[in-house]
Specification:
This protein is mostly helical. The protein has helices at about 20-35, 35-55, 60-65, 85-95, 100-105, 110-115, 120-150, 160-185, 195-220, 230-240, 250-275.
Length: about 280
């Protein structure tokens, strides 16, 4: 035994890196979203892409569609030849994006996030990454996998499969950006996730219906620019070598414009929460 006083040493603490903080927000968001209905929608989307790509690149069907020719890049565009696939994507976006910010506002956990050494940008990047990565599973992974499968079963050449994979990645990234920014924006407008989900689905579908009605009345395809789904459809068809109804560059401009505006407004709204909190 000893009667000498114990010695204590102050151990310094280190703050987690900024990237680590963002990653924690992202993984927590992914854990909440990769469940139940969302997984069902992802699987349905994968089945649509996989079955249609493999089916329409088989030599017999591709030859019939191409007037006797071999499979072309346009044969990979079948998921984007109608808005049905994008409507399914809209359902998924409404499901995964509804509570992205609204859920935190409802529980006041957003104030807890922003009272820590987490900036508004860190918070939004983490939330956006969680939503975006789920959409990547929906848009990019099935397309790339279907192209590889079409190559391995001998439907298409390696060069065509590689080109199609690049097209799926390019189109998928554009769609991920638009759907993610729009979901975060609408989720930031309310504290009720169910209202945010209804808003995401309602805005996209209502714009599609409005564009179709205006086009039928005016007989002008310019009305289709009103619908983000039609803009995405035009961009996708152009990349895959299918002639779209509207100018793809104009449609791409609308998509990036919507993404930029919604991202900016969302940042300003969350910045307001930080000041109040």
């Amino acid at each position: 035994m000893t009667i000498s006083a114990p010695r204590y040493e102050l151990v310094g603490t280190s703050r987690e890196s900024r990237s680590r903080r963002v990653w924690v927000i992202t993984t927590e968001g992914l854990r909440r979203r990769l469940t139940g209905l969302n997984l069902v929608l992802i699987v349905l989307g994968a089945l649509i892409v996989g079955v249609e790509v493999v089916l329409f690149t088989t030599p017999g069907i591709a030859g019939f569609l191409n007037g006797g020719g071999s499979p072309q890049l346009s044969n990979f565009a079948t998921p984007y030849n109608s808005v049905n696939y994008l409507i399914l994507a809209t359902l998924l976006t409404a499901s995964i994006g509804a509570g992205a910010i609204a859920g935190d506002v409802a529980t006041r956990s957003i104030a807890l996030y922003l009272s820590r050494p987490i900036t508004t940008l860190d918070y939004l990047v983490g939330k956006g990454a969680a939503v975006g990565l789920v959409l990547v599973l929906f848009f990019l992974v099935p397309g790339v996998a279907a192209c590889l499968f079409a190559y391995f079963v001998g439907n298409v050449s390696g060069g065509l499969a590689l080109t199609a994979m690049g097209a799926f990645v390019l189109v998928g990234l554009v769609m991920v950006v638009l759907f993610t920014t729009l979901a975060l924006f609408l989720s930031s407008l309310t504290r009720r996730p169910i209202f945010a989900g209804a808003a995401i689905f309602g805005v996209l579908v209502s714009a599609e219906v409005l564009a179709a009605l205006v086009r039928s009345v005016t007989q002008s395809v310019q009305a289709l620019y009103v619908s983000p789904l039609e803009d995405l459809l035009a961009v996708a068809q152009s990349v895959f070598g299918v002639t779209p109804a509207i100018d793809p560059l104009g449609a791409l401009g609308v998509v990036f414009g919507i993404s930029a505006v919604t991202a900016l407004v969302t940042y300003l709204r969350v910045l307001e929460v930080e000041v109040v909190g």
